[in-house]
Specification:
The structure is a single chain. With 231 residues, the chain is α/β, with parallel strands linked by helices. The chain folds into two domains: 1-44, no CATH class; 59-223, Uracil-DNA glycosylase-like domain (Uracil-DNA Glycosylase, subunit E). The protein is built from eleven helices and six strands. It has helices at residues 3-23, 35-40, 47-54, 62-65, 89-94, 101-112, 138-155, 164-172, 178-181, 199-204, 209-223; strands at residues 73-74, 80-84, 121-124, 159-163, 186-188, 191-196. The chain has a six-stranded mixed beta sheet with strand order 1-3-2-4-6-5, with helices on both faces. The structure holds iron/sulfur cluster.
């Protein structure tokens, strides 16, 4: 996370906490909040708090082999969140999601929407790289998923763009193929989910870029973003 992003996240967390205190009837951030209040109506989740809770996570075996835990990057109040499968070698080395070749393509896709990586939030279903990029196993997903759910609850995006089979099927709790899921809005706990192909798949199948662009345009329309004029 850049210094600027950290300050933005900090301000956003502080704002949420102050709003919560106000809603609970306290008028200063120095107020001592009784335990009973914290228990009945806990303060809002913050990305900083979720990251602190993860710590040097060893809740599943992937903790033993990863170089870096890849938490997520972007705007803590983003309207649009991208969720992929899990970190690859580049992401494991840098501790940031989508920084390899597929990540560079995702960045271009985001920019084509008139946005930037700083204006959206990018995360994965699992936060540590599976050895040799194998598929994550069910118990690994079960250990890691609560933290993604908490990130989604903290950010409260309007739309989640699920990248690829694994993210779409996990988020929507289905075995339906990505080719059938993509291009339509689905609903998950009150958040719209639009699955599309993973950028890594697009690198191997450039003919599918058109379909992905049409999926992204659906998101743009829903977010009220201007569509580029047809040439
Ligand atoms: S994949 Fe998730 S649960 Fe497993 S060690 Fe990493 S952060 Fe923890």
């Amino acid at each position: 996370m850049t210094e600027r992003e950290e300050i933005k996240t900090l301000v956003s967390d502080l704002h949420d906490h102050l709003s919560w205190l106000k809603a609970e009837g306290f008028d200063t951030w120095k107020s001592e909040v009784p335990f009973s209040v914290l228990q009945d109506n806990p303060p809002p989740l913050t990305l900083r708090g979720i990251r602190a809770d993860l710590g040097d996570c060893q809740r599943c075996r992937l903790g033993e082999t990863r170089k870096n835990l890849v938490f997520g990057v972007g705007d803590a109040k983003a309207e649009l969140m991208f969720v992929g499968e899990g970190p690859g070698a580049d992401e494991d080395a840098e501790g940031e999601p989508f920084v390899g070749k597929a990540g560079q393509l995702l960045t271009k896709m985001i920019e084509a929407m008139g946005l930037s990586r700083e204006r959206v939030y990018i995360a994965n279903i699992i936060k540590c790289r599976p050895p040799q990029n194998r598929n994550p196993q069910a118990d690994e997903i079960a250990s890691c998923r609560p933290f993604l759910d908490q990130q989604i609850a903290a950010i409260r995006p309007k739309i989640i763009c699920a990248l690829g089979t694994f993210a779409a099927q996990t988020l929507l709790n289905t075995q339906t193929r990505i080719s059938d899921l993509r291009g339509h809005f689905h609903e998950r706990n009150g958040v719209k989910v639009l699955p599309t192909f993973h950028p890594a798949y697009l690198l191997r199948n450039s003919g599918e870029k058109k379909r992905v662009w049409s999926d992204l345009q659906r998101i743009m329309v829903d977010l009220g973003l201007p569509l580029p004029e047809r040439k």
